[in-house]
Each structure stands twice: as C-alpha cells, then as structure tokens.
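Format notes (please read before filing issues)

Several people have asked whether sequences and structure tokens are stored in separate files. They are not. Every record keeps both together, in the order shown below: the sequence lines, then the token lines. Line labels are part of the format and must not be stripped during preprocessing.
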Amino acid sequence: MRSCCISLLGSTGSIGRQSLEVIQACGMKVGALTANSNVARMEEQARQFQPKLAVMMDEQAAADLKVRLADTPVRVAGGLEGLLEAAELPQADTVITAVVGMVGLRPTMAAIREGKRIALANKETLVCAGQLVTEEARDFGAKILPVDSEHSALFQSLQGCKDRGEVKRLILTCSGGPFFGKTRKELEGMTREDALQHPNWSMGAKITVDSATLMNKGLEFIEAMHLYQMPPEKISIVVHRESIIHSLVEYCDNAMIAQMGTPDMRLPIQYALTWPERVVGPATPLDLCSCGPLTFAQPDTEAFQCLALALAAAKTGGTAGAILNGANEAAVALFLEGKIGFLDIADRVRRAMEQVKVIQDPSMTQVLEADAAAREAVLSA
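Then the structure lines:
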C-alpha cells in the first residue's frame, strides 16, 4: 500500500472522525488536523495522532487549544490562515477536505496548487467553482478523488472504462431522506427534528437537512458533471431507499456496473486514500442474504423542489451553482435556527436564483461575489 501523510480538514465532524478510524486502521500518518470550534475533541485527536499542526478556525478556540496542548510538540494555529497552512503542509501528500460549506473552497484550491492528492468530501468546492477547480488540478498535477459514497461508487464503476465515450449514463442513487413519499402539502409542517432523522446515514445537521430536501442529491449531480466531465443529460438520479447500491454506470452496450456495500462512509474514505490499491480496512461487510430486497423509484421534484432548482442550476452553468449553494447554506442555517419552515428553504433559494445575475466562465472573485449575493438575498427576504 502507498504510504501517505494526511492533512485532515474538518477532523471533528462525522467524516473527519471516520477518516481517522481509516487512517488508524491502515497505519497512515497525520500531518495536520483542523476543526472549527470543538476544542475538547480536537485536543483528544491531537494527543492520539500527534500531528505537526492543529488548527481551529475560531481564534478563541485556537487560543484555548494552545494552552491545552502546551505539553505536546503539536503546534497550534488559528483562523483561515491556519486552515490554508494545513492544506499546504509540505509533509502531507494527501489532503482530506471534510469541512462543510463554501469555507472548503480556498483550502482545497491551495492544496491543489501544491499538487497534492485531494480526497474530496466538500461538494461545495465543485458545485461553486467546478470549472476553475478542475482546470487548476490539471495544471498543477493534483488528483481529485471523491469521498462521497455516490461519487466513489461512480469512480469505482468507471475503473474499467477505456473511454468516456463508452458511458451512456451515470446514475446517482438517492435514499430519499426521511420524507420519502410525502406530498408537498405533507411537508409543510416538518420540523428541524423531523428533518434530522435520516433513515440510513449518520451525518452532520446541514448535510442531513440537505438530504431531507433532496438538495444534497442536486449538489451531487452538479459535482458529478465536473468530476467526470459529463453533460447534465447523461446523468440521472434514482431513489434507492436501502442505500446498498451507491451508484451505477450504464454503458453504451446497456450493461450496468454498480458498486454495492453497507452504508458505511469508511469504505469510500479509504478508497480515496489507497487508490489504485485496495487493502483490508474497518468498513462493515455487506451480507447479501440479510440486506433485504432492493427497490428503486423516480424522485419527486414537485414535492422536493430543491432538487428541481439544483437541476436547473446544473443546466445553466456559470455562477448558478455558487448562487444555488450560497442560498441553500443560508436558508438551511435559518431553518436549523427555527426561523423559517421546511418549505421556505426552497422558496428562498428560488428567490435568490431569480435575483442574482448568473455569470458564465467566472473568475474566483466572481464566484465568491455570487455566493455572497445569494446569501444576502436569502437573509433579506
């Protein structure tokens, strides 16, 4: 197995904690850990994995951590500057980007410019600036490997593909979230607690709400376009409640290749770190005789209008993805704070998409401006 030293951005979140399980099981080294404000968990992780650098985005949390780790050789830094330093750490050849939201864009670009392997769990990076990111990766020789279970499944199912012209369609599977089968009328009264009850996966609050609105699948749709250089008409979404088939590739001869497994994020995390090799790891094995029947259905874009908005943004291109994502992040934050209802998320995203002008072939500055304008449109509604 390839030896690697890893900078893990977002180590205290769900993906970050599972990444550390994989790192430990596979005997890999940790060069840097970063988090937002969870000082207690970061101290525990830093003492266990002994990184060269530990970063807290919250400056007060960084000051606290520095005191706590004073008896260790771990250096502590804070803020965006510290996050960028972790992404660029010379000792690390691989960067796992497990931070949630637009904040992941700049450190991912910084790591790309250092030619590092990027294990990408931050979908917003490609949704908002996919063309810029993929062009930079090509220019600097950085490899982007997906950590999302669906994109890892597509990546694995494409391993035997000689030419993208052989691909008829990429098929993203979708659990349907906690509200599968409900009408738009029935969704009106859904609360924060209802939305956070995902049937299959254990994730952070923001991503879990995105799964409830199906925005998460829309973001993945846009991400797939950039990861695999596919037009929107060659990507489909199918609801698969059991989350056993994680995605499929349909080839020109009508054969389909799927990747199957338990809903365990440690498998796609590990594959992004060990590819092109496979090694023994901590992921839970799949028992075909006990997993039950597998079902499939079309997503309901009338009830789940966030998905329809994302598909429209995918076709529009340019800064439409940044507008969609910025508006969604702001709207979900309001929902989690109890300030708006469940259906208001889609309404506010739609309003932002109508108000903010789309720019084709944008610069990074224009992407960031589109993101800011979309958030402002949501907050001022």
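For reference, the curators noted about this record: The chain has a mean pLDDT of 95. DSSP finds 16 helices and eleven strands in the chain.
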